[in-house]
Amino acid sequence: MRKPSDCALLTRRTVLEGSAATGLLMAAGLQAASAPTPIKASAPAPIPKMALWLTINAEERAVELDPRTTLLDALRNHLALPGSKKGCDHGQCGACTVLVNGRRINACLTLAAMHEGDEITTIEGLADGDDLHPMQAAFIEHDGFQCGYCTPGQICSAVGMLGEAGWPSHATADVSAGTIALTDAEIRERMSGNICRCAAYPNIVAAIRDVAERA
Length: 215
Hints:
This protein is α+β, with helices and mostly antiparallel strands and 215 residues long.
């Protein structure tokens, strides 16, 4: 015969085990009931392309682009002009520099759709057939490149920079001077937006100074 204490202990254990099991079942049921019903996502509507006429290297080019396409991607991926390089894609290295209406810009920071009607010049358009642009020839003469990846942007930037030589820069000692000498310090400051990871900067400066002195 069981003692009363044994009956009490057995009853207490049974109650505790039963309560625990009930709690687990209730929790599982609540989780199943509260689980959200998955919603099937619909495919986003395609963005219609834009028909553009771009004047590149003195040639009219027709192209259809996603309106979000950058000028750099349009040149490289849609117009077979891979000379402009994609480096950082954030406007910090200058490898994508091209000329728009004679002014240098970072092609990765502007949309192609913004430049319909503009005169766009890339590295491919600087030479006249087999005759190199003076800046291209100077870069070769002064060994202004090593791996060459940044060179197209360096050259386009240098060509545009020479057109800005009359403007003062951060390196200009006297901003009120009528004539600003294009010293090495001025060239380095004005070309500071173009990075050469091979560090050919002295040769790049020499090439630009050579062209500036011949002009």
